[in-house]
Amino acid sequence: MSAMTKEVLLSVRELSTWFELRRWGFGHAGYVRAVNGLSFDLMRGEAVAVVGESGCGKSTLARTILGLYPPNRGEITFEGEDISHIKTHGLRWYRSQVGYIQQDPYGALAPFMSVYQILQEPLIINGIKSKSERTIRISVAMEAVKLSPPEVLLPKFPHMLSGGQQQRVVIARAIILRPKLIVADEPVSMLDASARLETLQLLEQLKQTYNLSVIYVTHDLATVRYFSERVFVMYAGEIIEKAEVDGLLNAPFHPYSRALIAAIPDPDPLNAKTYRDVPGGEPPSLLNPPSGCKFHPRCPSIIRGLCDLKNPPEFEPSSAHFVKCWLFKK
Ligand SMILES: Nc1ncnc2c1ncn2[C@@H]1O[C@H](COP(=O)(O)OP(=O)(O)O)[C@@H](O)[C@H]1O
Ligand SMILES: [Mg+2]
Question: Are strands 321-323 and 315-318 parallel, antiparallel or unpaired?
């Protein structure tokens, strides 16, 4: 990490987001512990990839950071401001600082709005009253995401665009207020192979140009080298390993991370597949999670009497490489 990125932008402490489950006739039936006690700092200009199997809580984490779900516990601070329970005015400020890129670009775009209207909306909401200023900012954003020619694309509706173009409109909208952070939740998983690579390269370029911090959520470890400095591996609502990309990919510590990396099917990200049945066994229920380490029922290196009873704290077996696993207790 360069010296430039040492300033903390976003700080997450002991964050938990649970969903209450209700059953017909039974009322409260428990909590789905989608995010459970996460802590990390994100530096200015830094990109972090959040990886893990489907259902491990990645989108819930993303949406909690975006202020779309209220956390049950813990704290999120952005530039030193507590945003965990931010309301109205503060929320509008925060939304202008944080851009959101969703998985499904078509679903993210109102079908009856033209590209022009879609890009104009956040500017209006944020009080940019001058039409000429809005027009300039729209064309700057179009150019930044390489949507051209603007005069042809601006009047179009989302269904008239390709998937890659739709995702560029979503990205243009996400950066139009010049945010400091982008949360990109599986931004390329619904695109075809060529649009996937182009979109990842575009995000990397925008990150450099605007010194953006990025939280890049993906189930696809093969793409993290594209623009992440660090990787967080999530399992059952927890971050079980945090490390710089090379450290994680070349020397993963956690048995779960090892299995994920061993299962990367092909070094070419264009051919990357999803990880089905990897590693062996099922991810645990988040409603009734296992005792101890949540990975212990699937773990090839289980220490009985310890891993099945006590959830491990975070150890730091090598510098700035953290792992929640009893194998690394000093
Ligand atoms: N709005 C919601 N209400 C209830 N349960 C939810 C909601 N969103 C997600 N979940 C549950 O939380 C868990 C984590 O989901 P999610 O964060 O979408 O995981 P991922 O993005 O890693 O696939 C899943 O068990 C999912 O069913
Ligand atoms: Mg998701």
Answer: antiparallel
Give the span between the Cα atoms of 302 and 308, in whole angstroms: 8
**What is the crossing angle of helices 115-125 and 163-175, to 10°?**
20
What are the structural domains of the chain? Answer: 3-328 (3.40.50.300)
Any idea of the CA torsion for 160, 163, 166, 170, to the nearest 10 degrees?
A: 160
The whole-model pTM stands at 0.93
Give the closest ligand to the alpha carbon of residue 288: 1
Q: What is the DSSP letter of 117?
A: H
Is 241 within 8 Å of 324 (Cβ atoms)?
A: yes
pLDDT in tens, 165-221: 999 999 999 999 999 999 999 999 999 988 999 999 999 999 999 999 999 999 888
Check pocket membership of 257 for ligand 1, CB cut-off 6 A. no
Nearest CA to ligand 1 atom 4: 19
